TrEMBL record:
Domain SnoaL-like: residue ranges: 17-112
Xref: Gene3D superfamilies: 3.10.450.50
Transmembrane segments: none
Database matches in SUPFAM superfamilies: NTF2-like
Protein name: SnoaL-like domain-containing protein
InterPro entries: NTF2-like_dom_sf, SnoaL-like
Domain of life: Bacteria
C-alpha cells in the first residue's frame, strides 16, 4: 500500500488509460524521467527501441492512440514496486496485437518499462 509520500500504483487508472481513446491518462502514470524499452519484430532484444522521458513516450502514445484500433487491459499484477500487465489490441481491419509489459515503479509512477509486442502478419 502506498502512503502520501509513496502513493500506490492504481490498476483502475491503468485500465482507463490503456482502454481510453486518448493517451492522456496513460501518460499521466509515467514519471518525468521514465524509460520505455520496446522489443518486437523490428526492434529486437539486442537493439530495442528506447524512449527517454514523458515527452518521447507521449509522442509514441499519441501515434498509437491516433490509429483506428481498440485496446484492452487483459491482466495486471502489482507487487511492491513492480508490476506486469498484458494488453490486447485490434485494428479496425481485424489485425491483432498482443503486448506484455514489466514495469518498475517509483512513487506510484512508472519509472522503467519493458514492452514486448507481437502482431498478426
Amino acid at each position: 500500500m502506498g502512503t502520501a509520500a509513496d502513493p500506490a500504483f492504481d490498476r483502475e487508472i491503468l485500465r482507463r488509460g490503456v482502454e481510453g481513446q486518448t493517451p492522456d491518462i496513460l501518460l499521466s502514470l509515467y514519471a518525468d524521467d521514465a524509460e520505455l524499452r520496446i522489443v518486437d519484430r523490428t526492434t529486437q532484444p539486442s537493439h530495442p527501441k528506447v524512449l527517454h522521458g514523458r515527452d518521447e513516450i507521449g509522442r509514441m502514445l499519441e501515434d498509437v492512440y491516433s490509429r483506428d484500433m481498440s485496446h484492452k487491459l487483459e491482466r495486471c499484477v502489482i507487487q511492491g514496486d513492480e508490476a506486469a500487465y498484458s494488453e490486447s489490441c485490434e485494428y479496425a481491419d481485424g489485425v491483432r496485437v498482443l503486448s506484455e509489459s514489466m514495469i518498475a515503479l517509483r512513487g506510484g509512477k512508472i519509472a522503467e518499462q519493458t514492452l514486448v509486442q507481437a502482431w498478426d502478419e
